[in-house]
From TrEMBL:
It comes from Anaeromicropila populeti. SUPFAM superfamilies: YwmB-like. It comes from the Bacteria. The chain crosses the membrane at residues 6-24. Gene3D superfamilies: YwmB-like (3.30.360.40). This is TATA-box binding. Keywords: Membrane, Transmembrane, Transmembrane helix. The keyword Transmembrane helix applies.
Length: 253
């Protein structure tokens, strides 16, 4: 009987591991659909970008602790330790930044410490970690980095984190209104996404949408959003720029 229990326990553990791997693979495949939808838009790809923002809480961190945290995330994305860390002090903030640029990628790791004071006395210091990675070739590799960074955040038992994926491409010339809407609708169809809101000011055409294929989302006015598409015309370059992000774009265009 004891041997049977041991066998059942081992089988149970193995099934948990298998199910966990299936979930991870399914999430990876669903994220890859964003890349596939972008590639199928027949745009000239110029950049893929990953950003993860982590709330590390108000733990006490020494200078050495902060440097170790930066090194931890640098190791996570296999960034060589030939970077320099710059420190910038503000009124209530201290920002440590490690940045490395190359031909095919640019990486930035920031650790921002924000002091909160009550009646002029230091109450606590909250720490935030931001890792940004821009890749100019082999955009499929961005998902591997996303998975690695999210796993690293989970292992640290952080308060919370938010991941952003963004892809940038370009079309030659200026697309007509009909062409812009068709490009957006094609992407939404591939992602099985439904429009939540549309903003069109002539030069900038932006669509916010939601799909059940992507696990992350934000809520705006009780509406879930995890797909953001924008098209804008660059007159100087004579190109129509396409941006596809999940959950939303966080930069000006």
């Amino acid at each position: 009987m004891k041997k049977t229990r041991v066998v059942l326990y081992v089988v149970g553990v193995l099934w948990v591991a298998v199910i966990a791997q299936i979930i991870v693979n399914r999430m990876f495949i669903n994220d890859k659909r964003i890349i596939d939808a972008f590639m199928d838009s027949n745009t000239r790809v110029s950049e893929s970008k990953l950003s993860i923002s982590i709330d590390y809480g108000d733990k006490f961190l020494s200078q050495s602790d902060k440097e170790d945290l930066i090194a931890y995330f640098a190791d996570t994305i296999q960034l060589k330790k030939d970077y320099e860390i710059k420190t910038e002090k503000g009124n209530n903030t201290v920002t440590m930044t490690a940045k490395k640029s190359g031909k095919n990628a640019t990486t930035t790791i920031e650790l921002i410490s924000v002091e909160q004071k009550i009646d002029g006395e230091l109450s606590k210091t909250n720490h935030f970690i931001i890792v940004e990675l821009s890749i100019y070739e082999k955009i499929n590799s961005i998902l591997e980095y996303k998975n690695s960074l999210e796993n690293a955040a989970k292992q640290m038992d952080v308060k919370e984190y938010q991941t952003l994926l963004k892809f940038t491409g370009a079309y030659d010339g200026k697309l007509s209104e009909v062409e812009k809407k068709q490009r957006v609708n094609d992407i939404l169809e591939r992602l099985q996404a439904k429009k939540v809101n549309t903003v069109d000011d002539g030069n900038l055409y932006t669509v916010y949408a939601y799909t059940g294929l992507v696990k992350d989302y934000i809520k705006v006015s009780d509406c879930r959003i995890n797909i953001n598409i924008a098209l804008t015309y660059d007159e100087e370059a004579d190109k129509t720029m396409l941006y596809l992000a999940s959950p939303v774009l966080n930069e000006d265009y």
